[in-house]
Write a structure and sequence with these properties.
Blueprint (H helix, E strand, L loop, with lengths): L5 H11 L10 H4 L2 E5 L6 E11 L5 E10 L8 H15 L4 E6 L4 H9 L3 E6 L9 E7 L11
The structure holds coenzyme A.
């Protein structure tokens, strides 16, 4: 992410997650963050962050840790493009799994995981800051053919 865009991305993250405590300022520096910009301007309409995590057994995984699309840009596939870009990075880095979490009631996000053929692994109680449950999703990146999630 170009550094001049960091305040705009932080603003967008506050707008798309209005109930979440504000993320610490280092969030977007500590974690690689991809952005989507409007075709007719350089306005940021979507962002996503991820982490590369090595497990105790030495396996490298891609953790999907944040995703948001501006309300006026939703339903047009922006999150699909951001997800595809994240998965391509994980694949090229040799990650075994992509790992993500969402709330049971977040239907757009659950549809996105389903579109990319993630497995719904389990429900984790008390997974969020407010005590809400989270559904854990995993995708075997070695099996995934990149492009459009239809593999
Ligand atoms: C979740 C979110 C990122 C999806 O972004 P988006 O760019 O609108 O999503 P896309 O257009 O790429 O569509 C992804 C899927 O969600 C579906 N979808 C989009 N908006 C939807 C809605 N309001 N209700 C139900 N499904 C919806 C799409 O139809 C598509 O599924 P399909 O391929 O089965 O048709 C966006 O809604 C958002 O920013 N929400 C608030 C923040 C958030 O919840 N982030 C995720 C935290 S885990």
């Amino acid at each position: 992410m170009p550094s001049r865009l960091e305040p705009e991305v932080r603003e967008l993250s506050k707008r798309v997650h209005p109930d979440r405590p504000e993320l610490p300022v280092f969030q977007f520096w500590a974690n690689p963050t991809l952005i989507a910009v409007a075709p007719d301007s350089d306005r940021v309409i979507g962002y996503t962050s991820y982490q590369l995590n090595r497990t105790d057994t030495g396996r490298l995984d891609l953790w999907l840790i944040d995703l948001g699309v501006a309300s006026e840009a939703r339903g047009k596939g922006v999150s699909k493009e951001l997800m595809e870009a994240r998965l391509a990075i994980g694949h090229s880095m040799g990650c075994a799994y992509a790992v993500g979490l969402t709330r049971p009631g977040n239907e757009p996000m659950r549809r996105l995981f389903r579109f990319f053929k993630f497995d719904e692994v389990k429900t984790l109680p008390n997974a969020y800051f407010d005590g809400g449950d989270g559904i854990l999703y995993m995708l075997d990146l070695k099996r995934k053919e990149l492009n459009n999630g239809t593999s």
